[in-house]
């Protein structure tokens, strides 16, 4: 790269970190650690995505596409630096640690290599040979030839270099395969983007003495490309109105025609006086406490002009009822930049769903400052061995995930 271009890239990298720090202050977020800031200022992010412009490579909240399927769907990307910094701090990498990264872009492995130092080890694994091939090339070209790059289905980990002090998963994991926990060292930590009844959360888990995983109190909303291979899980939505309105994470049969008619019909509004704060935490609370929960995906145009206007967020958690009825969370301004959360009720039984939703929101208002505790146990664990204060148990092929609010 010419000297001028190198200087431009160096400046773009410093500007990226400065912007990230400023935004974290403005948004009242926990600032990145000094060690993570240092490596972000050092590792040339643009060198791992040469197809992107400098502006794209160093945008703080932009995930750079690396590989797409034939239908255009992104199957691999370099995560936004905001998310990478957050996950590295969640992982708490220290010099001398052994790290397994699941999902290979190269850049994140280089950051991890800097954090664990020459006495540490970093292994990155991906199922796609094209992805690992480019990761290998760019790691070598930037001086990180010490990072191991492995091509295989990450569902089974990389046992030959285990145990790992930290495992960082950079793809969306619908379930946590037993190999990951088995390959953690005692007292190790797993950081993974999970799907919890339709809610996306990146969670840092510590490995307990009895072998189950216990979340640390710093999980965050993130969006990742889904896992491929044996751990793949297809999330299929129910089209309600073309591509404008769809229902996901449904656990029951739905009368789509009745639901469509309900959303275009009259609605009742309920405003229980609950402030709209911490919406992501509120979503997880709702998902755990609602009897008939689903997630409504609505296009921007429909939010502005369609039948379900003024929804609280997109996607939005909803509560279903019989006859195509539904209760949708909404919000309205109360002045001074503050908002109130409420519920829109649609359909013949919408009021019943809305009353249930309002009870959930009122209970949330008393616990809004409390982060959920998320624990993951092996499938087959008896109910008697699960925490007594559990609110919701999510059963999947490999695990039983327990949600509670201590």
UniProtKB/TrEMBL annotation:
Record carries keyword rRNA processing: no
Superkingdom as given in the UniProt entry: Bacteria
Keyword Methyltransferase included in the entry's annotation: yes
Compartments where located: Cytoplasm
Class in the EC hierarchy, top level: transferase
UniProt cross-references to InterPro entries, sorted A to Z: Methyltran_FxLD, PCMT, SAM-dependent_MTases_sf
Any one biological process term the GO annotation gives: methylation
Similarity-based family: Belongs to the methyltransferase superfamily. L-isoaspartyl/D-aspartyl protein methyltransferase family.
Organism encoding this protein: Streptomonospora nanhaiensis
UniProt name for this protein: Protein-L-isoaspartate O-methyltransferase
GO MF term list: protein-L-isoaspartate (D-aspartate) O-methyltransferase activity
Keywords, ordered alphabetically: Cytoplasm, Methyltransferase, S-adenosyl-L-methionine, Transferase
A GO cellular component annotation in the UniProt record: cytoplasm
NCBIfam families: methyltran_FxLD
EC code: 2.1.1.77
């Amino acid at each position: 790269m010419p000297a001028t271009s190198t200087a431009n890239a160096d400046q773009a990298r410093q500007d990226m970190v400065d912007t990230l720090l400023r935004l974290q202050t403005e948004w009242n977020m926990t600032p990145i650690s000094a060690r993570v800031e240092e490596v972000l200022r050092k590792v040339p992010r643009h060198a791992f995505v040469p197809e992107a412009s400098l502006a794209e490579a160093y945008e703080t909240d932009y995930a750079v596409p690396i590989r797409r399927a034939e239908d255009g769907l992104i199957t691999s990307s370099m995560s936004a630096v905001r998310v990478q910094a957050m996950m590295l701090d969640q992982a708490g990498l220290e010099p001398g640690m052994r790290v397994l990264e699941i999902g290979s872009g190269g850049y994140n492995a280089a950051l991890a290599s800097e954090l664990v130092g020459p006495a540490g080890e970093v292994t990155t694994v991906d199922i796609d040979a094209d992805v690992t091939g480019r990761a290998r090339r760019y790691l070598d070209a930037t001086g990180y030839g010490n990072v191991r790059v492995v091509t295989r289905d990450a569902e089974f980990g990389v046992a030959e270099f285990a145990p790992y002090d930290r495992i960082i998963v950079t793809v969306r994991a619908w379930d946590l395969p037993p190999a990951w926990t088995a390959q953690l060292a005692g007292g190790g930590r797993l950081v993974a983007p999970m799907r919890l009844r339709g809610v996306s959360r990146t969670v840092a888990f510590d490995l307990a003495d009895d072998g189950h995983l216990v979340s640390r109190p710093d999980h965050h909303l993130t969006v990742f490309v889904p896992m491929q291979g044996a751990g793949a899980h297809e999330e299929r939505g129910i089209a309600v109105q073309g591509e404008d309105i769809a229902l996901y994470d449904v656990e029951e049969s739905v009368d789509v025609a009745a639901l469509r008619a309900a959303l275009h019909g009259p609605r009742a509004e309920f405003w229980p006086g609950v402030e709209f704060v911490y919406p992501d935490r509120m979503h997880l609370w709702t998902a755990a406490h609602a009897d008939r929960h689903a997630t409504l995906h609505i296009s921007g145009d429909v939010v502005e002009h369609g039948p379900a206007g003024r929804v609280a967020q997109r996607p939005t958690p909803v509560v279903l009822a019989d006859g195509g009825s539904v209760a949708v969370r909404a919000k309205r301004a109360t002045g001074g930049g503050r908002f109130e959360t409420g519920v829109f009720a649609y359909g013949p039984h919408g009021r019943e769903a809305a009353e249930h939703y309002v009870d959930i929101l009122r209970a949330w208002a008393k616990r809004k400052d409390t982060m959920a505790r998320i624990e993951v146990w092996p499938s087959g664990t008896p109910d008697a061995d699960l925490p007594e204060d559990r609110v919701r148990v999510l059963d999947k092929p490999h695990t039983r995930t327990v949600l509670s609010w201590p």
